[in-house]
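Late entry, evening session. Most of the bench is empty. Finally got around to the prediction I had been postponing all week. Sequence below, unchanged from the version circulated by S.P.
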Amino acid sequence: MSWFGRAAASVPALESDPGADVTPQELERFRADTPAVAHGRIHLNNAGAGLMPRPVIAAIQQHLEREVQLGGYEAADAQQEQLAASYEAVAALVGARARNIAMVENATVAFAQALSAFDPVPGDVIITSNNDYVSNQLMYLSLARRTGVRIVRAGDLPEGGVDPESVRACIARERPALVAITWVPTNSGLIQPVADIGRICRAAEVPFLVDACQAVGQLPVDVGVLGCDFLAATARKFLRGPRGAGFLFVSDRMLEAERAPRFIDMRAADWVAPDDYRLAADARRFENWEFAYALVLGLGEAARYALGADVVGCGEAARALAVHARARLAELPGVRVLDRGPELCAIVTAEIAGVDAGRVVERLREQAINTSATFRGYALIDMDAKQAASAVRISPHYYNTRREVDIAVFAIEEFCPGG
């Protein structure tokens, strides 16, 4: 019998096994809206890409059909009202106005666009954390190599995650051009205290950039509470939108200061004289003129779906499943759960002694169980501190069940000593 078959036979079905704050009736509806679930796949890789619900799929497919029937430009022109509604939905999701939202390809592009709105000179300082996302860390290092800026990483709390008081001290000492923090690192369940850092940045009048790639869709987001000037996010993870779409929030303060990305195009500005241009008044100055309209419509639908499902309750359900996964994994011989921090989210990372996590993920996928792996090179500082080379990453969401988590843990047990 396959691992999946043995696991499914060994794990009892539960009459009511959603996480907290999702009723059995809601769970049934969410799962019915998720086609892959109906085909028996256990998807615990929402930190990679969540499964799109049917309304998101329909929005994308319908627009692609319009492009087939009408032509690309003509289809977009015919959907201007719906496209505007996508901006409104995304804005509502993060507590903003549509004028403060730019549609981009992904969170990394959003983050890079925001970063390029600053013109660093040798000696300028960017304050960040030890747990910032690998692509962001590489951007910082590239800027340091190219422009001579200094990268200062604030210290961590004893229990894990960046220490807001260390950020405060770094700001007072360094007078940085920018503070940039990843809210939820990709390599662990850590939730960093970005609202506390936002208050510190506001008091010091220092621009604040938040990478919310793993937060949007599993945590409530209010840019006013966060006090951020920029917030970068993707559609494809816990928001359950399509791959290839993301967005950037830009504060009124940054717009009024005429912050704009280094390279702009005809979406961002009007060419008003041979040697002059005028920036767009809103956040669309951070967009490129050409993007995938079907995906923008899908992103808007994903935002509406998340709002209708209740981000707070669904996020609590996902985190409850993560707590269950950590407890089950901790029982396995040779397994070390790596998540640290005063507050943890729906991302679970576990090292299996002597086993490459990539091999585990590959074998689980053969059994219709989707997980992912994180490696030292993805989070060098954090993984070295934990003395880990790789880890299996399990990231449940509100449409998953405890039984699915148990089946995945049962399959992972095969790699443990004596398994």
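Two things to note before I forget:
The two ends are 15 Å apart (CA to CA).
The chain has a mean pLDDT of 94.
Will write this up properly tomorrow.
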